[in-house]
Amino acid sequence: MRHNKSINHLSRKSGHRKALLANMAVSLIEHKRITTTLAKAKALKMYVEPLVTKSKEDTTHSRRIVFSYLKNKEAVKELFGTISPKIASRPGGYTRILKVGFRHGDAAEMALIEFVDFNEAALASSPKKEAKKSSTRRSRSKKSAEAAPAAEAPKAEEAKAETPVEAAPAVEETPAVETPAEEKKAE
User: Fold this and answer.
1) For residue 53, how many other CB atoms are within 10 A of its CB?
2) Are 62 and 51 in contact (CB under 8 A)?
3) What's the chain's Rg over C-alpha atoms?
4) What CA–CA distance (Å, rounded) separates 51 from 112?
5) Could you give phi then psi for residue 110, rounded to 5 degrees?
6) pTM confidence score
7) Which residues, 6 or more positions from 41, have their beta carbon under 8 angstroms from its beta carbon?
8) How many CB atoms lie under 10 A from the CB of residue 43?
């Protein structure tokens, strides 16, 4: 029975499992997102998040501890140099797991694991927090009625700016259409 056994052994011996998780963690740190099986993604999340928490404190001791897990200098440099400044204010939950379907060969459930603050596509598509507009709905007729007085307001201001004598005759004169007989007389 598996009473109180929280670690997923991933059908591997401990040395193989540690090497697998270390290599996957290095790939995740370098590429910021990787696609793997759901079971491995969950195991990797439990493996990486404590390392990211250690990287918040940039000391020689914490670098050595992280290096003992990852065994890769470039990954440690990337973790402490690029990732830790972005997640410094985050209290936890540095990675997210998204299910992406099933693998064709063996129908294993696949997942995408990524760092939360490094998803540029999601950050670009999600709208920034803006001031909320009024949530009341209005029909088109009301909107057009509101737009019409707003359009007439500048005309009214122009009329007030003119002299009173010019403002009084508001009758428009239509141009008279000349007939061919009148055109001959004009010549």
Assistant:
1) 16
2) no
3) 35
4) 19
5) -100, 155
6) 0.64
7) 97, 111, 112, 113
8) 20
Q: How far is CA 27 from CA 51, 137, 156, 164, in A?
A: 14, 50, 68, 80
Rounded to whole angstroms, how far apart are CA atoms 29 and 21?
A: 12
**For residue 108, which of 174, 36, 166, 50 has the smallest C-alpha distance?**
36
Q: Where does residue 83 rank: exposed (0-12), middle (13-18), buried (19+ CB within 10 A)?
A: buried
Q: What is the pLDDT of residues 42-93, one digit of tens each?
A: 999 999 999 999 999 999 999 999 999 999 999 999 999 999 999 989 999 9
Type of residue at 99: K
AA identity, residue 184: K
Q: Rounded CA gap, 184 and 187, in Å?
A: 5
CB 95 within 8 A of CB 48: yes
